[in-house]
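Reopening closed ticket. The problem is back. First fold of the pair:
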Amino acid sequence: MIHAARIHRMDNRPPARGKHILYWMQQAQRAEFNPALEYAVEQANALRLPVVAGFALTSFPEANRRHYQFMLEGLRETQKRLAARGIGFCIRPGPPEEVIPALAKNAALVVGDVGYLRVQRQWREAVAKHLACPFVLVETDAIVPVAEASDHAEFAARTLRPKIHRKLAEFLKSGKPPAVARPSLDLAKRSLSLDDPAAACRALGVDESVPPSDRLAGGLAAANKLLDRFIARRLADYATDASDPSLDGCSHMSPYLHFGQISPLDIALRVHASDAPRAATDAFLEQLIVRRELSLNACWFNPAYDRYDALPAWSRKTLDRHRKDKREFIYSRAQWEAGATHDPCWNAAQAEMVRSGQMHNYMRMYWGKKILEWSRTPEEAFETALHLNNKYELDGRDPNGFTGVAWCFGLHDRPWTERAVFGNIRYMNANGLRRKFDIEAYVERWLGPQTMSLF
């Protein structure tokens, strides 16, 4: 049974007379650990109907070849996993408000997953207006449903943490998924072929400006392989190693979470069941649950999450006081994008992101702080950081990405000692990197040995 707190009814109509239940897959692009899909199966079994999963392959703001190919690789695998459960899958190009109502023409009920971003919420509202049958959304992407954890935008992790922890025992568990009672209808006509994701990208005419990651492939199988290796080899030292960019101490789950190819609950249960030290599992679950769900909270309760004006009043005020301070360096958007600054640490972080589609979290904080320090205005810095993050990161255009950038400008933080340019915004510098880590090894990894003379 799906917890009632996960279920959001878009209307109060009873199920209509129909030939199937349609699961509109969007945020949760997976066949397992998916409460929205399981709710659809439960309803279908009760009505003695088959389940069909439908996907609208539409334009997503700022998405390019890197993002689409990773997503299509995952959907290709998901299609096979759905078929193994007796669930048909139909993917069609077009906006959701056209594709989903067409697939729901003979549906008794449409079940969707919850998206926290503005565009995702707009899609769901638009689809609801075009459906002749009931429409239910089920929250799949948070371990503790966002509105169950809090009823307002939280100030910081420390204010959300106790609320999450009070609910964890209730939600940090999983039941056996229901078997599909009736095999699915074949709605594969006009379904996009996923046999060759690269060819599908070309056929769709997606932005080719950013090539696929040279490090990560999409799909649950790839995610499981990385997660198993992380738990076996790195989780035990996570509390000490995860913040060090010279070490590979992270799980690399963020891109897979972004596309819903793996469930945060699945990850949490596997980490919780490991034999790693409690300090390590607690540190990891803090990031996976509290910090990640803080970003969901920020986007859910503040629809202007991607705008400079949505930053806390204290941070905008202090940055405004220092907007005329002299900057030691000022770089253009093109220089930032090319990693052509005077700072090898920053350039290495940019190179990591451009090549792999990821950036170590500690370096992403440093990266954002330096953009703030070496841009003409804080507003320009904010736009530059968002643009680069969204263009190159596989987990860009995501609550974690939006709030991660905003954190560099004061969101979910507090005022610190005042200084030039930053005002009371938390400051970071390269000397701090050198004191804490073998940052030269990180730079050499991404820029090559010839950069060592810069230190």
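Second fold of the pair, where the issue appears:
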Amino acid sequence: MNKKFTVLFALLLVASMVLVACQPEVVTKEVEVPVEVVKEVEIPVEVEVEVPVASKTLVFSSRLFSPPQEQEFFITEIIKPFEDEHGVTVNFQIIDDQTLLDRADIQQSTDHVTTDIVVAHNSRMAEWIDAGWVEDLTDHVESWDDRHFSEAFVQNTNKDDKQYFLPVGADVYLLLANNKALPYLPEGVDLDSITWEEYADWAVAVAEGEGEGKVCITGIPSKSWVYMFGGTALSFGAGFPDANSAGAMDAWKVWETIGKGNGFVPTVLNVDSCVDPMMREESWLTVFHNARAGQVFASNETEFTLAPAPTGPTGTGSIAGVSGYAIMKDSANYDLAVSFLEYLTRPEIQVKLAKGTGGFIPPVQEAIDYLGDEAIDEVINKAVLVLENGVVSGVPGGDYEDWGAVKACFDDVFADTILTGADVTQDRLDEAQTCIDDLLK
């Protein structure tokens, strides 16, 4: 066994040696192989990117359209279409006349004008023009051959044959009655030609029948009483503001009749506008601002009757007010401001604006052609009749040191004489006239 094992082992050894001898020779060699290396490199590329450009902002400060519903209409229906068309923003602000003037004084004196367009009442236009704070718009107006402004307001908007203000939102006074008052109307009286004496008798009849007065006037001082009385006085041949002439005395006697007959609403001294008392039916009779009359009438035309203001020996008297657009001197956006005023004074825009804000009179003559037959159109048409055919006067506020103080001279006569049921005396009216005259510039 051992011999066989030895022979077998020897054979295996020899075989393995042969196999090893038959293997190829392994040679190690260094070889350079190219390797692609990827590296991120930032390469600048010009790309056009649309960057929003800030639009121009036109600062528009107005004493007109102060009621919230008027502001909303003016912004959404008048301003927005202009903004969309021109790619601009109109910053619309409501500011009273005195604050407008005070702000202009600061901006002009510091050479830092931030306001572009102002809207002032005609009683204050002279102050703007005399101070040199508004631009001469004559050349622009003359180039607009599709519109002509009413001549009724030239004395306020123009000076020395130059036009500084463009009139907007004209107003006169209209009679508005709740239909509940009609059964008390004196027999045979036509509302379209009612006289002031008939109006007074009607007011007393309503008070007697209802147990309380139903006539509304603005009893809070420095509101509209001066204009309500002024229209009556013009109907009797007085001037404005006129407190003690023979015509003025006749006018005071009309209101004396109403006062002695307890014809005023019990809350009259708290009334700053006749809109709410008429809407709530606390008041049934008033002669007031046509746009405010329109606001009430259009709310429910079946409940109210609208007519021109009452007449007197010289006709239908009314104070005719108006506001006006002007461009602030050294406006930073003059050309845009001119474009906006051109847009605002187009006849169709004038009517749209008038109808949307209660029934103001559009003072562009061509605008009347755009009126229709809605309730608000009736308001405007009646107001136009008064303006064109009545005995009207503007508001000469610029002739006085303080127009608010002039109002107080009339307010005091109402409070201490008319409302108390006392007789109106010449001495009391002479005192009121002295009060007025002392305020002349």
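Update: turned out to be a display glitch only; the data is intact. Confidence is low (pLDDT under 50) at residues 1-41, 49-54. The chain has two domains: 57-170+321-391, 173-320+394-437. Please close again.
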